[in-house]
Design a protein that fits this description.
heterodimer; A: mainly alpha; MetI-like fold; two-stranded antiparallel ribbon; 12 helices; 2 strands; 1% strand; globular; B: mainly alpha; 3 domains; extended
């Protein structure tokens, strides 16, 4: 009885000690995240109701920032560009990743080397590859215009694709697919490698063709990993800034539009804050829709 | 007939592989090719330079640039007075050298290196302790913390940019060079912390608890266990996480472009390259050479951890 009591007490103490130590170890990280991520977000919401002045104080203006933003047609065109960009990059990245993963899952010579080479777009810093892409699409020197105009005659003159907003968004989409597909490929490949090979053998015995095998075995197996990739891609590409801004300043997605609003010209930081809030709410709304309707979680 | 079809299939498959490889590496080949071309060769679609031009690399690495950046009159003066001693020559060169035109690649490189390495080091150190805590210890609020860290993934840079900029201005960080540098280190550290925590937490869970238990039976405290058991066992994972964090900071443009306004000395590689591209026209060779030299260290770093790459990614710990 006595012994049990002591043990119990020791247990309690140990649990308490563990609890204190656990909190102590995580505390620095939690404090940093709270003060430099969570607090700034709340502060951003606060700022979105003010006319922000860098030198002096802020003036409360209620919802004026929001109504100013909403009545600006360039805002709506930024929303449209963002949706086009996110939609096509997500589909393009995931499909390319799926095709590449299925190809890399088969045997062929130099497979190890090829698997490494395919990762290059993903691991190279954005800043180091944007200029190569700018060069490829350069109207005077670039190889794209050389082929499309000189050799194939698809254009009536050498066009600066990156320079015109309508065409630049497609260059940005291709660039993003190129940069992002290795991630999808890696994730899908590791899932494909886990599929039991006997499933395919059994299907072959039953006389299934390639498409049927893909539809009935591969697709259900990779369904969830593809779902997760699509979700991540939407989140990332919705917030994407560097990949677009460094390639071309003509593609005004929401991030780029906000950046220009808040840090160039009149430096409308209040409006910038309200734009960031709007962008965040749109993303949350979309994620909820996606998780409920598409992933059916 | 069947055999023919399978050969055709095989050829088509290999063609697909070739296309994939071509799509992946073409921009890099283009980059290397243009960095070695003379200006008159740029429009030539062939990837092999007609004549190799190493001038761009020499300029970036500052090889043999001393005399090139001198004004014409000084060059003539130096040529016409051969009886100057070497020290006299050098002092004249040093005095009249026009350094404003040169692209200070090394300074940018060094700035990026210090920023990224410091931020990643702090981030990984904090993450080892934090991840150990929530993956290994039992206490109230643990799962809330775990979920909270996941939630942080959703915030893009742009929603943090304005408030953080305002906060650091209010705190007076951005009025001095040192303050600005520290502010950027803090920001990069914060941006990489959730990723590091998440990845390491996932990894620590795979280490059998019995190893730790044995150490604790021997009388080792928690800190000793972390330092002597967990860290050595997960060393490759820690390195992987460090490289990830390093990459995020090395690539960062958005915050640097806003915070480093007016601090030219602190410019990082992304800012420097962008400025170089905007400020001068028709400098493709130098831009491409600088791109190569920015990409190569990172690619080498990544290839060295490639074995762990797939595991790290599927552990869910990535951020772009």
């Amino acid at each position: 009885m006595n012994l049990a009591n002591v043990l119990n007490q020791n247990n309690l103490n140990r649990q308490q000690r563990e609890s204190i130590l656990g909190w102590a170890l995580i505390a620095p990280a939690v404090i940093i995240i709270l003060s430099l991520i969570l607090y700034p977000i709340i502060y951003n919401i606060y700022l979105s109701f003010f006319d922000v002045n860098m030198e002096g104080g802020n003036t409360y203006i209620g919802l004026d920032n929001y109504s100013n933003v909403a009545s600006d047609p360039t805002f709506w065109s930024a929303v449209y560009t963002t949706i086009v960009y996110v939609f096509f990059t997500t589909i393009g990245t995931t499909l390319t990743g799926l095709i590449v993963a299925m190809a890399m899952n088969k045997e062929f010579p130099f497979r190890g080397l090829v698997r490494s080479l395919v990762l290059l777009p993903y691991v190279a810093p954005v800043i180091s590859v944007v200029f190569a892409w700018k060069f490829i699409f350069d109207p005077v020197n670039g190889i794209f215009m050389d082929i499309a105009y000189e050799k194939l005659g698809l254009f009536s003159e050498r066009i600066n694709l990156i320079g015109s907003p309508g065409a630049a968004v497609w260059v940005a989409i291709i660039f993003s697919i190129w940069k992002g597909f290795p991630f999808a490929y890696l994730m899908i490949l590791s899932r494909l490698q886990a599929i039991d090979g006997t499933l395919y053998e059994a299907a072959e015995i039953d006389g299934a063709n390639g498409w049927e095998k893909f539809k009935n075995i591969t697709l259900p197996e990779v369904y969830f990993v593809v779902g997760a990739i699509v979700l991540l891609r939407i989140i990332w590409n919705f917030n994407k800034f560097e990949e677009i801004f460094l390639l071309t300043e003509n593609v005004k997605v929401l991030s780029v539009y906000t950046y220009f609003k808040a840090f160039t010209g009149a430096m409308e930081m209040g409006q910038g804050s309200s734009l960031a809030v709007i962008q965040f709410l749109m993303l949350i709304g979309f994620i909820l829709f996606y998780v409920k309707k598409v992933l059916k979680w | 007939m069947v055999k023919n079809k399978s050969i055709l299939n095989r050829a088509g498959f290999l063609l697909l592989i070739l296309c994939i490889v071509f799509f992946s590496v073409f921009p890099f080949i283009q980059m290397l090719s243009t960095s070695l071309k003379y200006q008159w060769d740029w429009g030539n679609p062939s990837l092999i330079p007609t004549q190799i031009n190493l001038e761009a690399y020499k300029e970036l690495l500052n090889i043999g640039q001393a005399e090139k950046s001198l004004p014409e009159s000084i060059k003539i003066l130096l040529d016409e007075t051969p009886d100057l001693t070497k020290t006299q020559r050098n002092s004249i060169i040093a005095k009249y050298k026009d350094t404003s035109a040169a692209f200070p690649f090394f300074r940018y490189f060094f700035n990026s290196l210090i920023l990224a390495a410091t931020a990643a080091l702090i981030s990984v150190s904090l993450a080892v302790l934090g991840a150990y805590s929530f993956s290994r210890m039992q206490y109230k609020g643990r799962s809330t913390i775990q979920r909270g860290i996941l939630f942080v993934y959703m915030f893009g840079g742009i929603i943090l940019l304005i408030p953080l900029y305002k906060m650091f201005v209010n705190l007076g960080f951005l009025s001095t060079t040192t303050g600005t540098f520290i502010a950027l280190i803090i920001i990069y550290m914060v941006q990489t912390l959730p990723v590091s925590l998440y990845m390491l937490g996932n990894y620590f869970r795979t280490i059998p608890f019995s190893i730790e238990e044995a150490a604790m039976m021997e009388g080792a405290g928690r800190f000793e266990t972390i330092w002597k058991i967990i860290v050595p066992l997960s060393f490759s994972a820690i390195i992987t996480v460090f490289v990830y964090s390093f990459m995020i900071a090395w690539n960062e443009y958005l915050f640097a472009s806003v915070f480093l306004r007016g601090f030219e000395k602190l410019h990082t590689l992304p800012i420097g390259l962008k400025t170089l591209y905007v400020s001068k026209n028709a400098i493709w060779d130098r831009i491409m050479a600088a791109s190569m030299m920015t990409a190569v260290p990172v690619i080498v770093l990544f290839m060295s951890i490639q074995k762990n790459l797939a595991g790290g990614l599927s552990a869910g710990g990535v951020k772009e």
